[in-house]
Amino acid sequence: MNTPSSSVGPFDHQPRTRIVFGIAAAARVGELARETGMKRVLLVTDPGVVAAGHAERVRQSLDKAGIATVLFDKVRENPTTADVEACLAVARNTGLDGIAGLGGGSSMDTAKGCNFLLTNGGRMRDYWGVGKAARPMLPLIAIPTTAGTGSECQSFALIADAETHQKMACGDAKAAARIAILDPELTLSQPPRVAACTGIDALSHALETAVSKKRNALSLAYSREAWRLCGTSLPLVLQKVGQIEARAGMLLGAALGGLAIENSMLGAAHAAANPLTAHFRLAHGQAVGLMLPSVIRFNAADPATARLYDELDETKAAGLAARMEWLLNLAGMPRSLAECGVTPSSIPLLAAEASKQWTAGFNPRPVGEKDFLGLFEAAFEPRGPGAP
Ligand SMILES: [Zn+2]
Questions:
Q1: Residue 244: enclosing H or E segment and its boundaries?
Q2: 273 CA from centroid of ligand 1 (Å)
Q3: For position 14, what pLDDT does the model report?
Q4: In the predicted model, what is the mean pLDDT of residues 244-255?
Q5: How far is the CA of 105 from the centre of ligand 1 (A)?
Q6: Separation CA 306–CA 299 (nearest Å)
Q7: What is the pLDDT, as a whole number, of residue 38?
Q8: How far is the CA of 212 from the centre of ligand 1 (A)?
Q9: How many DSSP H helices and E strands does the chain contain?
Q10: Distance from first CA to last CA of the chain, Å, rounded?
């Protein structure tokens, strides 16, 4: 009998985030913040979320619970150190005792970044790595309005250096949200392009964590359920906008993907995506999506990894890249790097930078600069139509 591949690998997992899931769960934010002992909360969000009315509804719920709100609503996509500084300027000297991040991964990452600087001082660069915050941090409530990054279930803030655009993963157990509120209704307002990009990102998290070198029995349980939920829900979200069950499946799948990352890290597609975002400003989900089919084919050449893909999806390792291509086409993702303005002459630089990314070290098949050259070249070929 075959031993399941999940049975190896030690883990030490301390659940840090209480997860409150359900339709209209966001209305409970005031009650939950009060339970946590908050009296004055920094609400970190972006203009789109304000326009959708979500920020005002959260503020009203907090107000009803007797909690004052300090608003920072200028979050931008792929937040930089400058964005965190701008948030900090609003937060400083206001007597805060809690933070709420409302929006996509960028809002939650900006909220976490601000929490580091507000409570521990210094600059974001000081927290690049894991466990660099010496002092306690403020309790954070994370309320995602997109189903993608899984930041609500992670202890990492991804902040780019404002000058070099290098992404710094700043992780600390204390930075993890105390409570994540998952309300599928909030994700109905996502523009279709955002739902597509973040949905592909959520799928990529399930896929990369399921095979990473750091995977273990627990992370695999999260990865596989995230893959099942996102794999069945994303096509429905893309085809019939507004279906609440599909939105709920995506939101929960994305959060489980975040828990998988917390335990298993990522792989070569994320390592390759970061320099693409830094140099060509591709959205994170687009960049990861462009690289995934070639990364799957590269990894599947390793028999042990192929077996993990076999266990993950009914199409097995042999059909997985084509299934991913089908999903990418359904999501309207770009078909090749050339289509996104990436120049062939930039490949050596992209490959060099990708090979130095932290996440590359967790890819199941060793992946060096030469391998990344091949992966980027393969991503220049227009994708096939794929198969469901
Ligand atoms: Zn990602």
A1: helix 244-264
A2: 9
A3: 86
A4: 97
A5: 10
A6: 7
A7: 98
A8: 14
A9: 14, 9
A10: 30
Say if residues 363 and 267 touch (Cβ distance below 8 Å).
yes
- Residue among 78, 99, 171 at smallest CA distance from 142: 99
Q: Average pLDDT for residues 130-140, to the nearest whole number?
A: 97
In this predicted structure, the answer to whether residue 233 has a pLDDT above a threshold of 80 is yes
Instruction: Give the mean pLDDT of 187-212.
Output: 95
60: CA distance to ligand 1 center in Å?
Answer: 32
CA-nearest of 237, 308, 322, 315 to 267 is: 308
- Half-sphere exposure of 187 toward its Cβ, with a 13 Å CA cutoff? 36
Of residues 80, 62, 61, 59, the one with CA closest to residue 71: 59
Q: What is the pLDDT of residue 381?
A: 87
- Centroid of ligand 1 to alpha carbon of 102 (angstroms): 18
Whether residue 1 is predicted with pLDDT greater than 80 in this model: the reply is no
Task: Find the 149 Cα to ligand 1 centroid distance in Å.
Answer: 6
324 exposed, middle or buried (CB, 10 Å; 0-12, 13-18, 19+)? buried
Question: How does 93-114 read in b/e, with b if 16+ C-beta sit within 10 Å?
Answer: eeebebbbbbbbbbbbbbbbbb
Burial level of 245, CB count in 10 A (0-12/13-18/19+)?
exposed
Compute, in angstroms, the gap from residue 123 CA to the centroid of ligand 1.
24
Q: What separation in Å is there between the alpha carbon of 237 and the centre of ligand 1?
A: 19
Query: Distance, CA 266 to ligand 1 centroid (Å)?
Result: 8
Tens digits of per-residue pLDDT, 22-76?
Answer: 999 999 999 999 999 999 999 999 999 999 999 999 999 999 999 999 999 999 9
> Ligand 1 center to residue 98 CA distance, Å?
27
* 316 CA → ligand 1 middle, Å: 23
Other Cβ atoms closer than 10 A to 35: 13
Nearest residue to 238 via CA among 250, 253, 225: 250
Question: pTM of the entire structure?
Answer: 0.94
Query: Which pLDDT score is estimated for 246?
Result: 96
Averaged pLDDT for residues 257-272 = 95
